């Protein structure tokens, strides 16, 4: 059975609550697609109004991050219980910007992945290499390490429900995009790695996105590749162009 595409927008630190509602109202008719899951991962303060604005549509609301503890003295963090209570189904974990600016590591990513599954949240687990790492020829080794640590102590049944987002760091917000062949090569390697950790059935079930300057013009070519099951979209998810990405055919 073919894997269902999942196309998610990562809003990053954009959109006030008022702007979020207006954007969802604008995008609602543009992102209707019965053949793909559509997710808007929004800033924490936007989650409640976004949930309300998306009610009755095919849009799922996700979070951009969460902490790996249930509650406590962690000023500024958001717990999985808070996300679940708000109705969130998806959460981005380990985005390169979280790793670069907020000192997240493979180990903290793993803790968050385990906690997300514990609460029935679907993690969108990010991995990706820098331009230096690609030029040094260590892309696949680097990605395999990120994947192996992220899935430490995750059961096969839970892993099947996960989403992995491959985002070459050098292509995020730069206007540069990995070629469809480059993206497919890494996504295929990720699937092979999951097969090594678990089994072929798990590798075939897991959905792998490509992210990094995805737009309406290149989405169809990228998503046509056998190991690319959708996209994690940054800037273009804040514009009507996102409708072209969701309806890429």
Secondary structure elements and pairings:
Layout: E1 5-10, H1 17-27, E2 36-42, H2 47-54, E3 59-63, H3 80-86, E4 90-93, H4 96-102, H5 106-118, E5 122-127, H6 131-135, H7 139-150, H8 156-161, E6 163-166, H9 180-197, H10 200-205, E7 207-210, H11 219-223, E8 230-233, H12 241-246
Please provide a written account of the structure.
The chain has helices spanning 17-27, 47-54, 80-86, 96-102, 106-118, 131-135, 139-150, 156-161, 180-197, 200-205, 219-223, 241-246; strands at residues 5-10, 36-42, 59-63, 90-93, 122-127, 163-166, 207-210, 230-233. The protein is an alpha/beta fold and 249 residues long. An 8-stranded parallel beta sheet has the order 7-6-5-4-3-2-1-8. Strand 1, helix 1 and strand 2 (36-42) form a beta-alpha-beta unit. The radius of gyration is 17 Å and the shape is globular. 45% of the residues are buried. The mean pLDDT is 96.
Put the structure in a nutshell.
With 249 residues, the protein is of the alpha/beta class. The protein is 42% helix and 16% strand.
The percent of residues in helical segments reads: 40-55%
Which structural category fits the helices and strands?
alpha/beta
The count of strands amounts to: 8
What is the 3D shape?
A: globular
Mean pLDDT: 96
Strand order of the largest sheet: 7-6-5-4-3-2-1-8
What profile does the largest beta sheet have?
8 strands, parallel
Stretches where pLDDT is under 50 for at least 5 consecutive residues are none
- Please compute the radius of gyration using only Cα atoms: 17 Å
Question: H/E series, N to C?
Answer: EHEHEHEHHEHHHEHHEHEH
Note the gap between the termini.
19 Å
Question: Into which percentage range does the β-strand content fall?
Answer: 15-25%
Output the number of helix runs: 12
